[in-house]
């Protein structure tokens, strides 16, 4: 299949391009310098000749978005609208990567794909608008929400934790935010499987199964780096005030995948075991 991947130099983008090539697809990976997804003239016709457009480009600076929501909106909503229009015109499917931040984070059980959204941050609002835009512009869409991504190609939570733990000999990490650490390679694999299976258009959740807190994930990261997990101390979100509110509960359900006959990503702990050496280097 012929794939166009935008945001190809980002953390997920690099792994997606590599995985698609490994599986024999014909892939064009473009980043901002090649194709700015907010440029209407550049995006018109950009999907011509492709079977699939995977939009991995995004404004991902969650805290910065609070003070610059209009820029985040342009990248996370207007850009995907332009790409979706181009994909539809070209007869291509569009895959739009979205986020757990579209939910309020107040649930006590996993969010279903059709659970009501209620973003509490500027980033979440702009990503939710991106979902709507893609659905409106391109009936043949796959909106894939992910969360707590980590990967080899970019700064990410386990790398930061391992470095800080080594530098300081111990650190405090919040234990009152729960989610599903997800490896970019696993998400790339899932995106490829969704398209290869001809999954029905709709919204899917691309996260690992199970759940843990940032504290639990930090302990796993520190252990993988050869240190004692006990050096990671528990703290609370109150002590880590940040511009954008963080969801307390970011656990996503995977029923839509199962209904489409696709196996969700495995349990987060086993997947971290598989990923740790590649991610920590
Ligand atoms: N990381 C997470 O934990 C997480 C969680 C949930 C959902 N997601 C979603 O997963 C996707 C991938 O995230 P990621 O962590 O891989 O992000 P990332 O590393 O920040 O990559 C995003 C890429 O998009 C590019 N980009 C930004 N603005 C652009 C524009 N106007 N035109 C073209 N490219 C542009 C960036 O280029 P520059 O470097 O030049 O800005 C960067 O290469 C995003 O949709 C994100 O919202 C991520």
Can you put this structure into words, describing what you see?
By secondary structure, the protein is of the alpha/beta class. Helices cover 41% and strands 17% of the residues. Strands 2-1-3-4-5-10 form a 6-stranded parallel sheet, sandwiched between helices. Strands 6-9 form a two-stranded parallel sheet. A two-stranded parallel ribbon has the order 7-12. Helix 1 packs across helix 7 (184-196), helix 4 runs parallel beside helix 5 (122-137) and helix 6 packs across helix 8 (214-224). The longest helix has 22 residues, at 69-90. The two termini are 32 Å apart. It binds NADP nicotinamide-adenine-dinucleotide phosphate (NAP). NADP nicotinamide-adenine-dinucleotide phosphate (NAP) binds next to helix 1, helix 4 and strand 4. The site of NADP nicotinamide-adenine-dinucleotide phosphate (NAP) has 27 residues, from helix 1, helix 4 and strand 4.
List descriptors.
single chain, alpha/beta, 12 strands, binds NADP nicotinamide-adenine-dinucleotide phosphate, 41% helix, 17% strand
Distinct helical segment count: 10
* Poorly predicted ranges: none
Tell me the radius of gyration.
18 Å
Return the structural class: alpha/beta
List the helices and strands and how they pair.
Elements: E1 2-6, H1 11-22, E2 26-30, H2 40-43, E3 52-55, H3 62-67, H4 69-90, E4 93-99, H5 122-137, E5 141-146, E6 149-150, H6 157-168, E7 171-174, E8 178-179, E9 182-183, H7 184-196, E10 202-205, E11 212-213, H8 214-224, E12 232-235, H9 255-259, H10 268-280
Parallel strand pairs: 1-2, 1-3, 3-4, 4-5, 5-10, 6-9, 7-12
Antiparallel strand pairs: 8-11
Helix pairs in contact: 1-7, 4-5, 6-8, 8-10
The chain binds NADP nicotinamide-adenine-dinucleotide phosphate.
